[in-house]
Structures are given as C-alpha cells and as structure tokens.
Design brief:
By secondary structure, the protein is an alpha/beta fold. It has a single domain, classed as NAD(P)-binding Rossmann-like Domain (Rossmann fold), CATH 3.40.50.720. 42% of the residues lie in helices and 18% in strands. α3 packs parallel to α4 and α4 packs parallel to α5. It is globular.
C-alpha cells in the first residue's frame, strides 16, 4: 500500500533582498506598514516624518537604517535630504500629506495651497532630486485618492485626483529608467482617517463593510502589499493602480 507524497512547501527569494526603501511619511499608517512589509521582503528602510517622537518610535520598532525628521512639503529640505542619502536608493514611497476638503464658502486657501504642495509640487521636486540617487530600474511611488466625482467640498481634492495620473505618466518618461507609479486609494483605516472622521469613524467602517464588494474595510496592509509589488515588478511604470475594495463601483 503506497502512501501519498507529503506536500512540498514552495519557497521563494525575498522580493526586495538587499535593497533600500525610503518611506517619506513612514512613521505611521500606510508608510509604516509598507516599511514593515519591505523589511519582510529583505529590504532595509529609511524613515522620514514630521513628528520626531513618533518617527523615533517607529524606527525603534522596525530597526530602521536611519531616519530624518522634516516637513516633506518644504522643497529645500526635501532636496537636501535626498542629496544627503549615503547610498544609491532602490525605491521611494511618499505617503506624507493628507487631503483637504471644504465647501467653497469656507475655503481656507492657505490650507489648500499646502495640499497642492504636498501632492503636485512634492512629486515634481522629489522626481528631480532623485535623478542620479535612485538606481535605474528603481521606483518612485506616490499616493492619491480615487473619489474625484462631483461633490460639494471636494473641488480641490477632485482636481488633484485628476491631475496626479497625468503628472505621474509624464514623470515616468522624464526620469526613466527610474520607474514612477501612483497608488490611488479609497478609504483606508489609518490614524489619519480616524483624525479626519472623529466620532464618525465607526459609522464609516460599518457602512463600508456593508456596501463594499469585498465585504470589509481596506487597511494599511492592503496598500503596503500593492506598494511592494510595484517596487518589485520592474515592468510597471507610468500607471495608476486603484486599491479601494470596489468603492468606485458603488
């Protein structure tokens, strides 16, 4: 009587073995989770953030190669940071900044200008500074949203969501062979989302669990998995990748 062969475990090489990943906005949320996943795939990580204490805590937890505390929307400081990086870098993910929503009658133009700085201008400054610092075939990854439909209070957000894919597609040509891609996320259950929604957070979570095709809320790990895939797959550049659990379909 023969016995069935035991199942063979498939082993693979880490996707980012020996590589260095910079997380701009890496002290919390999506950036921190992506740092954790990149390390699991063999990478070393460099973290930046605006809050020195939170950044130090994240660095201790992850064993980061190094850290830098600064405002990524400050172009001079951003460019100095990139210039001072001690080695060729493989990948950079930007999760710094956040959305700004307000109806026109209550529009705060100072905050609106900052939102533009944190998205369009940051991407341009980083792309230019990265030439010669990010290795050929490495990647720049940026974040945007998916909900650009016509809604009161989303005028600026909709404009930025529409602009970012065009910017990323053109930057991919300008800085090639460095690759440039965009992650467009819907609601992601992060500390930033909690701060924006306040006491409406649980209500929003319940609503999404009941309506999204995936039947659950998108978390930082979902976005991190996509980010690491975009770093590892060297055929991908100049494109926008949605991760929203089907939110746009509703």
């Amino acid at each position: 009587m023969s016995t069935a062969p035991s199942p063979t475990r498939v082993q693979r090489e880490p996707q980012l073995a020996g590589q260095t990943v910079v997380l701009i906005g890496g002290s919390a949320g999506i950036g921190r989770e992506t740092a954790r996943r990149a390390q699991a795939e063999g990478a070393e990580v460099i973290l930046t953030g605006r809050d020195p204490e939170r950044l130090e805590q994240a660095a201790r937890e992850l064993g980061a190669l190094s850290t830098a505390a600064f405002d990524a929307a400050d172009p001079d400081r951003l460019e100095r940071f990139v210039a001072d990086l001690p080695r060729p870098i493989d990948h950079v993910l930007v999760t710094a900044g956040g959305p700004y929503y307000a109806p026109l009658a209550e529009f705060d133009f100072e905050r609106a200008h900052r939102a533009v700085d944190e998205h369009l201008w940051l991407a341009l400054h980083l792309a230019r500074a990265s030439v010669g610092k990010v290795r050929p075939g490495g990647s720049l990854l940026f974040m945007s949203g998916t909900q650009g439909h016509r809604t009161v209070g989303l005028s600026l957000g909709a404009a930025l969501i529409a602009a970012m894919p065009a910017l990323i597609a053109n930057l991919a040509l300008e800085v090639a062979p460095v690759r440039v891609n965009l992650i467009a996320a819907g609601f992601v259950d992060t500390p930033l989302s909690a701060s924006l929604l306040g006491d409406r957070l649980d209500e929003r979570r319940d609503e999404l669990r009941a309506t999204l095709p995936i039947g659950r809320v998108v978390g930082p790990a979902d976005v991190a998995a996509l980010a690491v895939h975009l770093m590892a797959n060297t055929a991908l550049t100049g494109a926008t990748y949605d991760v929203d659990g089907g939110q746009q379909l509703l």
